[in-house]
Amino acid sequence: MAEPHLVAQGVTVRFGGLVAVDDVSISADRGEIVGIIGPNGAGKTTLFGAIAGAHRPDAGRVELGGRDVTRWPSHRRARAGLGRTFQRLEVFGSMSARENLAYATEAAALGNSPLRLLQRSRHRRLDLVEETLDELGLRAVAEERAADLPPGLARLVELGRALCAQPDLLLLDEPSSGLDVSETGALAAHIVEAVRTRDLGVVLIEHDMTMVLGICERLYVLDFGACIAAGPAAEVARLDVVREAYLGTVDATG
Fold it and tell me: For a tag on the chain, would you pick the N or C end, based on fewer CB atoms within 10 A?
């Protein structure tokens, strides 16, 4: 049986005397959505940083598509098919929604050779941009500045830009942050559809448990930097240790 597309094995990240991530192992494959949950300060975003190349692990390894990328810088991992969004909304505010997506289609080529800026239009995939605008329902706001869009639409622009880079695996850090229930539901539906149609894998950090349990097939639970539970989402959510550490006593499965 082939290895999952992403394998992080025994990852440990220290900041001085603080162990932010303590011997954590996770995996994710194309075509699935995997969730990472846990209280604030549990080490979730630091783990993302180790996977994406922002932090070099003090121990452990990260593999992407069967290759050991532990010592690769972030930009090399991105070119190898790893995408990422951040908890804080990150769009190019002065660009239109369409321009945000177009930039993502050309960024890898321009990064390989800055001289290509002189012929940047040759590296754009405008067909992909138009397809993604339609997929995410952004056609009506395609020419509006991203900074002028409400949070729900701006999050879709951010997702669209990530998709236009054509990743094999996408790390989403609290994508529903700042969204209302309706906007969160729409975003979740678009994530599911992108995974289905693009053979994409998603690893999701999220506090909205309705969203998590609605779209994630598997869950990892972090607490104080360590993984305290892992497995099918519904089963993990019912574990007493998970309820005590994160979910409380309310039945999160409804």
Answer: N
